[in-house]
Amino acid sequence: MDKTTSPPPPGLALLAQLDALYPEARIALHFGSPLELLVATMLSAQCTDEVVNRVTPALFARYRTAADFAAAPQAELEKAIYSTGFFRNKAKHLRASCQLLVDAFGGQVPKTMEEMLRLPGVSRKTANIVLANAYGVVVGIPVDTHVKRLAGRLGLSAARQPERIEADLMALVPRKDWGRVSYALIAHGRALCLARKPRCAQCPLAPTCPSAFKV
Predict the structure, then answer these.
(1) Is 2 a catalytic residue?
(2) Among 101, 139, 155, 157, which residue carries the largest CB count within 10 Å?
(3) What is the pLDDT of residues 88-121, one digit of tens each?
(4) To 10 degrees, what angle do helices 162-172 and 145-153 make?
(5) Which residue in the list 90, 125, 148, 168 is annotated as catalytic?
(6) Single pTM value for the model
(7) pLDDT of the residue at 9
């Protein structure tokens, strides 16, 4: 009986290379509780993690509980998160989400995807990040702008919608690796596979990347 092992599919091999290149890749947002992570992740939409991490120390010192955020005047919260961009909608969603946490979940961030998606302004991406990093509950793969871009360039998904990209990655990646594949992709997107001008000449994935030197 032939016991030779077949090589992994090209996409899976690329992901294995990424994992080897960025073994320490992890979430960059700073937080000390599930609530803080939820708030930081919501603020990170259309904003860099660095800016969010500059804003949240003062924010978390001022608003310590879901009830604090829910009771915060809209204008006051807008001013506190102004530098993260889209501050009006973010403040609105933060207040509404925290009010629902108080009303339906005893002020605590829930531990299931279904419950997380009830919170205003919370997408699957946000829910995946919070569940995995706050509770160790991994039920999907967060798809942010870096993951979306690299999934297309590396030939991992031809989809454009985050939910479909997530489904493609979940089908490709072993479940045990779901918790870290997103951060490896993000690390590569920040280091080499840049949005405007990817550094293909410096990229160790270039020999097998279907988009190398084409973008």
Answers:
(1) no
(2) 101
(3) 999 999 999 999 999 999 999 999 999 999 999 9
(4) 60
(5) 125
(6) 0.91
(7) 63
